[in-house]
Design goal:
Distance between the termini: 44 Å
Helix content: 10-25%
Largest sheet: 7 strands, parallel
Strand content: 25-35%
Shape: globular
Radius of gyration: 27 Å
Number of helices: 12
Length: about 800
Amino acid sequence: MSTGGAGPSRRQVLGMAGGVALIATAASTAGIGAASASTATTAGAEQGSGSSGFVPAPNPVPVPLDSLFNNDGIDTSAAPGGDFDGSGYTYPGEVIKAGSVTLGGVPYLIGPSTAGAKNNVVAVGQQVPLPQGRYLSAQLLVSASYGPASGTATVHYADGSTSQTGLTGPNWYTGTGAISAPYRYTPGGGTDQNPVSIAAAEIGIDATKDAVGLTLPSTALPAPNVASMHVFALTLQPAAQGRSLLLRDVRSTNNLLADGGPQVVEATVVNAGTQWITARDGISVDVQAAGARTVSAAEVRTLAPGEQLRVRIGIQASVQPGTAATGTVTAHDRRNAAVQQQSPLTLGVPDYQATEASLATHQAPYWFDDAKFGIFIHWGVYSVPAWGPVGQEYAEWYWNNMQNSSDPTYAYHANTYGKDFNYDQFIPQFTAAKFDPQSWVELFSEGGAEYYVLTSKHHEGFSLWDSKVSGRNAVKLGPHKDLIKLLFDASRKHTPHLRNGLYYSLPEWFNPDNPWMGHPPRNPYTGEALTYTGYQSGRDYVQDYQGPQLLELITGYDPDVIWYDIGGVNDNLHVLPEYLNRAKDRRTPKDVTFNDRGGIGAHDYTTPEYTTYNNTVVAKWEASRGLDPRSYGYNRATPDNLYMTAQDVVQTLVDITSKNGNFLLDIGPNFDGTIPAIMQQRLRETGSWLQVNGESIYGTTYWARMAELGSLRFTVKQNEAFYIHSFDQPGNTLTVEASVPIRTGDRVTMLGYPRPLDWSIRNGALVIEVPKAAQRSGSYDWVFKVDWR
């Protein structure tokens, strides 16, 4: 693993819970991202009084922020001089233009970019006056300098009450968001060709009260290396009285509804009214477009006022893949349309091309989004020394760490093996003699994982398969086995439900043709030049080695995941189309996925490492870490009592899931292929919890109104149930000070306890009675289910 990614992520962190997915389609390099050309309508006045009983949702209300603007973050080449980040960099006003822009169906007002003009609010606790009224939500355009930057936003109501929620501005350097630009201006008036962006965020508002103000989080004023949150625009969505629906962010995708198809059009359905939508309403959502038909309509069976549901509509195209069309998405009951929206669609999935724009049309598969939990496996030559200062360094970085005379590994190696013992002398000791691939994959399954990712090659450059472009591999040396093939074959035979993934480090520390650390192998104690065992040097690193190796993995092993690391020089603009097109063109097409560390802008998900996000990230993300306190590879110096406990694992999984992430939990097998007992124990304990509580994890999504509340987390199984997770063992009652979507007649239970629980609403809070037996029956995370069915 690296201590960071391959560069800036292109996905945005959305505030509060990110709310509706307001991400526009791929940004044009010549205009404001993807300002939506779609139009939304309700079914008209006739519907409001007709048999369907749906009323039009009020138009969104942009709130001018001019009087609060305190930062010039958008400049043009003709009017430079701004300072967005405290270091003199700014957004380009030629791309992010002043005036009105509509994103995902929401109109915003962007401030001016003329000389000296302020155009955004650095959030330092200002109160924004709101036109008094009843609103479902506030949509914001936000970013952060040296971020991300997070804080608490407070909504003020006319009756003197308040509600609070988290808000996060993503680092503007992430590259894409609701608004994107392909470059930024430097302090000297030049251009920096890294993409920058502004993200969409949402704050939930209590629509039963008149809102009058919004206090922004208190972050810092811009300065180098200081995280500051910037707010560019604010729009309110008024609530309707009665039954009312909104459609937002309608777009075609290249995703398959399931392996084999069909193609999916996505839309977000918002209950903009004051009445619940129930199965009795018979609401379904479909698509009409010349050249395509709906083959799998989406259902809206349960949706509380102010809540939202992201639907997947399956369509079958009868035209050439990639045909542009205008489609109409309609949410309707059994007789009448409740709301419609027209939007540009791409019918069919065309072949991927070797361009950023083409690759950016790919997104994380639904199986990946629904899986939530995967196992990372760091296994290689570093598993022989398997040492690092506990809790301080990655043990898999042993070879690199021993190059530094001030690093503890330098002294450890000399004292343990001697100064003349070179790293490659560990290769014969990497035997995999006790490797039992069936037991591995059965352990992953027992632990509740839905996928796994094996290190095919780490920074040491040792490949775990029979690479034809390098003899530095596990078939020619060390184990003399194709370890990837053995593991994938076992998984496909014994645990076919598991998706199979491969990690690949793009650079190598000491590869003679492209040494990441600046030099080929050498003895760190004497400076003597060393052989890079098994490698044939004198070639083009990317074209003759790295690219061909990746193609070997793609064509030879058919991975469901490619997990790049580090970035750097690469040919992934050509490698990835081969990967994606092979998956698309199979007899039974499937969706595959790749992360954000491939050295190009396109990616399906971001990968925070040994950290997570404070709030929901609507664009897909995956957090990874080891069971070890600070290592992915096995560190034999780490005592068992310092590993993550099962409670740590479960609570981390729940926290990440509640914020729209996946958790990739790492284990580090020993050199002989055995998995340390403490790691096996933790996986089995986690699996036991998931056997009881897994329905609140797999296939769920985040709650758009709130990411967390103290020790509480929330997940939603759309159309079915709402889950409340308590990291603290509850007492006789559990009180949830939030607008939980629950109504008279809904059943509340605790997973793992057989009887329904009594509940009530007191002063706007949900209060659940928890018997002693229920308190005792839970562990790690007590899960309460509001069953809407």
